[in-house]
Amino acid sequence: MAGEGAADPEILVEAQGIAMRFGEQTLFEGVSFTVRRGEIFVILGASGCGKSTLLKILIGLYPPSSGRALVLGEELCRLTGRRRLAALSRIGVMWQQGALLGSLDVLSNVALPMEQHTALPPEAREAIARAKLGLVGLGDALRKLPAELSGGMLKRAGIARALALDPEVLFLDEPGAGLDPVTSAGLDRLILTLARESGTTFVVVTHELASILAIGDRCVMLDRQARGIIAQGDPRRLREECDIPAVRAFFRREAA
Amino acid sequence: MRVGEAELAERQEAGGRVLVVSGRLDVHAAASLWRQMLAAARRPGLCALDARGLSALDSAGAVLLIEAQRAAGGIALIPPELPSARAALERMARGLRAAPLPPPPPAVGPITRIGLFALGVLAAAARRITFLGEVTLAALALARRPWGLRRQELLRHLEEAGTRAFGLCVLLGTLLGIILAFQSSIPMRKFGAELFIPQLVGIALLRELGALMAAIILAGRSGSAFAAELGTMRVNEEIDALTTMGIDPLPWLILPRILAAMLVMPVLALVVNLTGLVGMGVVMGGLGVPAGLVIAQLQQWVEVKDLLGGLFKAAMFGLVIGIIGCRCGMRAGGGPRAVGDAATAAVVGSIVAVVMMDGLFALLFFRLGW
Q: Does B104 contact chain A (CB < 8 Å)?
């Protein structure tokens, strides 16, 4: 599988006919898309359509029932040993609730991936972690424990940890969920800044309309009834031009 | 020197030495060069850091350059020519400026530390006494209006803490009796005193070990469950919800649990006592002592007051385990470890308290000649 993405080095993530079934039930099937370098790609859809499951398939936590998920040219769920570690060091994931380790302070949480993947001495890891936390606006919370942080701060710390190794692709699961509109907009701005400044590619799972329109370069929309992708493209154009009822309802916040 | 694709060199100029870094300064090169570059930067006589020749720079490399500049006392840093590397350097400098090293915590002397510890102990004692007072007031109020007790909740906890612990009590009681009888038979045999094993085991079980074993079972099974359940309710804001509905959590949640623990303990202790005596009887049978003789020995030497004293202690142990389990659950903090910590504190606190109380009871019974 290795090297298939190398055919076009600008394609960092590729879904090839991914299907996910639980027993008789099909969550989605025939999901195909590509994410190009430097893009902010949004996977959107209503609750329960399988967005987060698709994200977990992409990052190799779940094997798909059929189809392939290529990230940086590799099928992460099939890799083992050193190749798996090497591939994982090139991606970053921010979880919905931050998923910081509760027993470590924020600085140690961000330094953790460097401890696992590099030979940097402890003071180097700490300095780099400090810089990353400064970039996400948590410069004054270095020694705080995750339990002492608010929801927005947890997500920022989660982004800082995901950024620790300068990943080529950053996967974000529901960055705006549970946040007030101002904090959510601040997080969107942070994502945009990071994407524009460092050229990192983002794959964002969300159903927050404001976020989708603010940050998304391209998107795919999953639908539970259709069990797959019902629309893809620029979210702003989809909002204006798409005449598929489910897409219109989503973008115009109409009850189904 | 060359590490990976990065190279570190020095050049002499009119103003002093210049540290020159070139090539690809990525995270792996930074890892290898980190200490060496900082050591070179700290040596006196350095006038500038030249990064013009960098062909790639990631955030780890950028932080290394900034740290080296800082270690050299803020000398000039000639930035890389490559725009992306210059951008990375600027970005990381911005990040580090926004996250200054937190000042080290103020030094605390040994005397201050002892004082803080003492204050902590006093505050904890005050919290415990407050909780005890609240529970006592709630219990007195309940005694005046006993129909206010939630019977369903009481029955649920009686079942959880009592009925479901029977099997464990039977198993551990029997084993305790067998072990005590076997262990005491070895020295007793040397003096031809096997006949006295029944009263030794009987008195030990009825006065002490039955209640103690039942207390350990209750603390491990139910004390921890009280703490975990109430701790989860605290974390999920269920207790706050009850309070805002005008429902006092003490009679609603806590008194049924404490009452249940207090009521089941004598029964559990009795089960341990009886099964322990049966276990002892089995061993005596194995040693060739007829059952009739064992029963006669027990009747002659073990008195009802031994049994009653043990059961009274058991009830008190139940009360303490219930109170400690509930208190640990009610004061659970936030965070993912809160519930686990509460359960651990409940078990440890209960067992310590029970053993200490047992010591006090031993002293009391001795003075009373009981």
A: no
CATH T-level assignment (fold) for domain B2-98? Transcription Regulator spoIIAA (3.30.750)
The domains of chain A are located at: 1-90+167-256, 94-165
CA A96, CA A174: separation in Å to the nearest integer?
A: 5
Chain A residues closer than 8 Å to B96 by CB: 127, 130-131, 134
**Between the CA of residue A35 and those of A95, A233, B117, B209, B212, what are the distances in Å?**
20, 11, 57, 69, 66
Q: In chain B, whose CA is at the least distance from the CA of A146? A: B335
Using the Cβ of A142 and the Cβ atoms of chain B, whether some distance falls under 8 Å is answered with yes
B82 Cβ under 8 Å from any chain A Cβ: no
- Mapped onto helix, strand or coil, the DSSP state of residue B63 is helix
Structure confidence at residue A1 as a pLDDT band (50, 70, 90): very low
The tens digit of pLDDT for each residue in B100-110 reads 888 887 888 99
Residue with tokens 């790639």: B56
**What is the predicted pLDDT for the residue at A246?**
86
The proportion of chain A whose per-residue pLDDT surpasses 90, expressed as a percent, equals 39
CATH architecture of structural domain A1-90+167-256: 3-Layer(aba) Sandwich (3.40)
Using an 8 Å CB-CB cutoff, list chain A residues near B101.
Answer: 130
Buried b (16+ CB within 10 A) or exposed e, B257-278: bbbbbbbbbbbbbbbbbbbbbe
